[in-house]
Structure formats: structure tokens, C-alpha cells
Amino acid sequence: MAQASAEAKAAFGNGAVYLEKLIENPRHIEVQLLADHHGNVVHLGERECSMQRMRQKLLEESPSKAVTPALREQLGDYAVRAAKACGYQGAGTVEFVLAPDGQPYFIEMNTRIQVEHPVTEMLTGIDLIREQIRIAGGRALDFAQADVRLRGHAIECRICAEDPEHGFAPSPGRVEFLHLPGGFGVRVESALYSGCDISPHYDSMVAKIITHGDTRSEAVYRMRRALEELVVTGVKTNLSLQYMLLYRPEFLSGHYHTGFVEANLDALLAPLEKEMML
After folding, report:
1. Domains and CATH numbers, the chain
2. How does strand 205-213 pair with strand 104-110?
């Protein structure tokens, strides 16, 4: 506490510190919301972001297997009340951790569009970027909370230029060949192309693959197929690791937490090493 207080004092001129309850093996749940300049605030359901490594998200999905309809309503109410309390305007995300007993705890609010916003767009049909621009222009939301419908299931995998077999070391360089997946229920967001150079000076994420299905199983099957179609040569990526996650029983059953990847990393990488040997 003394060290933390000294650091806060030096950085912010205020050495006050507080203690938070440690939640072991939590689920990371976040609620997307939109708030305009006219007092209208709506939430667009939750996203599950528990598949992480070193607190960096790997895979996101919605709806969460851990969130019941009653809890979804509760979290949405918390998010809307928080936004109204601080007079927030724009697109934002209120984040929670979910304890193993199901109790939610507030973490923070991200006052921006997030990497995983396509998951919510695929589920609701609402263009969050369009809404953010409309709000910034002073326009009122043209829909209410009762108009928001969550349809089916959506998953996003973050493809990063890094080498999982060597401590997830960054893998900048030139993309020799690229083939992106497509088809019904598949969305790709990327600036990659064959011959492009991946810089070492920025975040290692180079593509997002998003799939949608009427059911969670359908979304999983489409993601597997999409990752099978994705080809990136010239640099290392976490593609194979993402693919292996989609076959893990813990993921398929929905029983995973923020520490799952690190606790099972050796098992997740073992098939990759075998594949390299072949």
C-alpha cells in the first residue's frame, strides 16, 4: 500500500488508495450501451470476454452462457443507471466481473467503441458506429429499449501477429499471402493484404473474424470453418490457438473463466507443436 500510495502521489498528486475484493477465476462480462444528448440511454445486451491471456482478450461471444435473463436485466439496469448518473453521451461499455457464485462486481466503463463491438452489431442489427456519429451530431436515438432484440449468437476471434509457441512474441514482417474467409454469417474486419508490412510499433491484432448463427453451436461451427479458410503466410499468428479453443470441452459447455487459457496453455499448445513436427 505504501508503494502504491507513493506512485499515485508522484503521478497524480494524490496518494489516496483503496482496496478491492479479489475475485478468483471470474467471468468478464460487459454491457454495451448508447446514450444521446436528450437523456435517452439504452443497453444492447452483454458480451462475454473471459477467454483471455494476460488480461488481453482473445475471443468474445454473446450472449453469455453465464448470464440468465434476470441477470441480463440487472446488468443492463446497472449500466444504464451508471451512464445516466454521470451524464454520459455516446457509445460506451460498462464492464463487470462475475464471481463463481454469480455475483457481479463493477470494474470500469470504457468510453469508446471497443474491438468486440461487431459481436453486438451482429446480434442486434444496430450499427454502433453510425449511432455514435449520429449522437455526436446531436441526433436523438431513433429506438427505445423495448425495440432492442438479441437474435441468435455471435462470436469474435482476434487474429494477432504473434508466436504462441515462443511466448507470444510479436511477429512483425511482410504478409506473403492472404486469404480471408467469407460466406453466410461470416464477417471480417482487417486491413491486411498480400504484400503488406505489419509494423512492430502498434498492437499485434491484424484481423477480426466474426460469425453469427441462430444458435451458439451454429456460430461455433461457422467460426471453425472460417478459421480453416483463413490463410496468412510470412508472419506467425495465433490462428491455430484460436482454432484449438473452439474444440475445448470447457468452451463448448460455456464453463470457462479469465484464467482458463493460462491454466491450460501447455495443453492448448501441444497440438500446435505436434503439427509443426509433422
Report:
1. 23-149 (3.30.470.20), 152-247 (3.30.470.20)
2. unpaired
pTM listed for this prediction: 0.91
Q: Identify whether the C-beta of residue 97 lies closer than 8 Å to the C-beta of residue 22.
A: no
Average pLDDT over residues 178-195: 97
- One DSSP character per residue, 69-110 reads HHHHHHHHHHHHHHHHHTT--EEEEEEEEE-TTS-EEEEEEE
- The answer to whether 157 and 215 are in contact (CB under 8 A) is no
Give dist(CA 121, CA 129) in Å, integer.
Answer: 10
- Summary mean pLDDT of the chain: 95
Short-list 177, 173, 230, CA closest to 198: 173
**How many angstroms separate the CA atoms of 130 and 79, rounded?**
21
Which residues are annotated as catalytic? 112
Cis geometry, peptide bond prior to residue 181 (ω within 30 degrees of 0) = no
What is the rounded average pLDDT of the residues 203-222?
97
